[in-house]
Design a protein that fits this description.
alpha/beta, 17 strands, disordered N terminus
Length: 334
């Protein structure tokens, strides 16, 4: 029998299947009909390419491990109240554990801690949380991702030039860490950071609007006085790409090296066509799989680490052409 915090007990058979779950200090229940683990997986939003791939990984893990998952998230990555409400609802429904990608490292703290106090263990994935209440954190090393993006951009520019960092919405732990890593690497390499704005909202349109306003302020005598750009996630990367395209259509002269973060089919196409020089790529499928896997291990009484790094790397057009594993990672068929 396993005790979480003195309030929830779980009884297992020899192979780790839950036989009974209870709240409070009551005993009994062993020998009852086996009960399948039910886990809530709460992404930052529904329907985006990135989160769709995370879902595939989570569902694959659930199938492999013989557990049930409830996949539900807010419609947008700015609806903190909706995500908190989903978490509270999942706890009240009696799920055995929760894996959540927090929308805000501060605003998500209390709801997660409330879940843990109710006896529901939580694994955090993708973005940091300002709390130690969670069982484990499964994510890319986001600061390192930003750092290698900055180093690659500096290499493309020969260690000098004016650059911009296109952030995402404020408070998002993953993208703030990437921006931090990029800014430190860019400055260490001798680049001059002239702007690092936050997106107006979490949509491609909001990112594009902010990027376009910033880029227009850097146009002098019909020329964009900027040598390099780093964008912190898929939507900020797409927003910058569309903003650059609009500027070019208006007649502005542009000669800029561009490193983005994450991948979607449109971003991979832009990389292949040379509109983007490189993408810093993480592994969303692995992230979804491991978030479920680590939570199930914990629920079955197995030891887990506090942090699991799912990996990040720079992908270029050349690597896409020459490395089958990279093509597989970003969803390209040989």
């Amino acid at each position: 029998m396993k005790w979480a915090d003195g309030r929830r007990w779980i009884c297992y058979c020899a192979v780790g299947t839950i036989l009974a779950v209870g709240i409070g200090g009551g005993l009994g229940g062993c020998g009852q009909k086996p009960q399948t683990l039910t886990i809530a997986v709460i992404p930052k939003s529904m329907g985006e390419d990135f989160w769709g791939t995370v879902e595939q990984g989570a569902r694959a893990a659930a199938a492999d491990l013989g557990v049930k998952i409830e996949w539900q998230g807010p419609l947008t990555e700015t609806d903190h109240a909706a995500q908190n409400s989903i978490l509270e609802n999942m706890v009240s429904r009696g799920v055995h554990g929760v894996a959540i990608a927090p929308l805000d490292r501060k605003a998500s703290r209390k709801p997660v801690e409330n879940a843990v106090r109710a006896g529901v263990p939580v694994v955090v994935f993708d973005s940091e949380l300002d709390s130690e209440a969670y069982v484990s954190f499964v994510a890319s090393n986001n600061e390192q991702g930003g750092r290698i993006g900055g180093e690659h951009l500096a290499k493309l520019l020969g260690g000098k030039g004016r650059v911009m960092c296109m952030r995402f919405v404020q408070g998002t732990g993953s993208t703030e860490a990437r921006a931090k890593g990029f800014l430190e690497a860019a400055q260490a390499a001798g680049l001059t950071v002239v702007a690092h704005p936050h997106a107006e909202d979490a949509t491609v349109a909001g990112c594009k609007k902010t990027a376009l306003n910033t880029l227009e302020s850097l146009v002098k005598q019909g020329r964009l006085e900027l040598d390099g750009i780093f964008a912190c996630n898929d939507r900020s990367t797409m927003g910058v790409l569309e903003a650059l395209q609009d500027l070019a259509k208006s007649g502005v002269q542009i000669q800029v090296r561009f490193v983005g973060f994450d991948f979607t089919p449109r971003l991979i196409e832009a990389l292949q066509k040379g509109a983007i020089d490189a993408l810093v790529v993480q592994n969303p499928y692995k992230m979804g799989y491991m978030a479920v896997e680590v939570l199930v291990k914990h629920l079955r009484g197995e030891p887990v680490e506090k942090f699991y790094d799912t990996g990040v790397q720079v992908v270029t057009k050349q690597r896409l052409e020459q490395e089958p594993e990279i093509r597989k990672l970003v969803g390209l068929k040989d």
